[in-house]
Write a structure and sequence with these properties.
Blueprint lengths: L1 H27 L4 H17 L3 H8 L1 H4 L2 H19 L3 H27 L7
């Protein structure tokens, strides 16, 4: 029980810190949210490429895999694995293969939300 609570606390602190930095960037800079989101994905890719994000994922679990930096990490690990297995073609297919479930869930839940609620343009 203590181990579970400690794992939850680690995930909350790490994931919350990543999200808090993003919120601070939205509030304190002139960066658009879209640029911040893309920056987070690129940061996850870069940190994974140099071997720093993997240990963070092992330490924080969902706290490091759920934010968009985790999506960048998933892309990188998928590409690395596919390149090792099938060669250069894996550079083009590995990222999509490793993130397909997340992308499909985002499309499904986005469509479901649009069906359940009446979306309208922002004014």
């Amino acid at each position: 029980m203590i181990s579970l609570l400690f794992n939850l606390l680690k995930a909350f602190v790490i994931g919350g810190s990543i999200c808090a930095v993003g919120e601070a960037l939205v509030l304190k800079t002139k960066l658009t949210p879209a640029r911040i989101l893309v920056g987070y994905i690129l940061l996850g890719v870069l940190l994974s490429a140099v071997g720093l994000y993997g240990p963070l994922v092992e330490f924080a679990g969902a706290g490091a895999t759920i934010p968009l930096t985790g999506f960048g990490h998933a892309l990188t690990t998928g590409v690395k694995r596919a390149v090792q297995e099938i060669g250069l073609l894996g550079a083009f297919t590995g990222g999509l293969t490793s993130t397909a479930a997340g992308i499909a869930a985002a499309v499904f839940f986005g469509a479901l939300t649009a069906l359940l609620f009446k979306p309208h343009p922002k004014e």
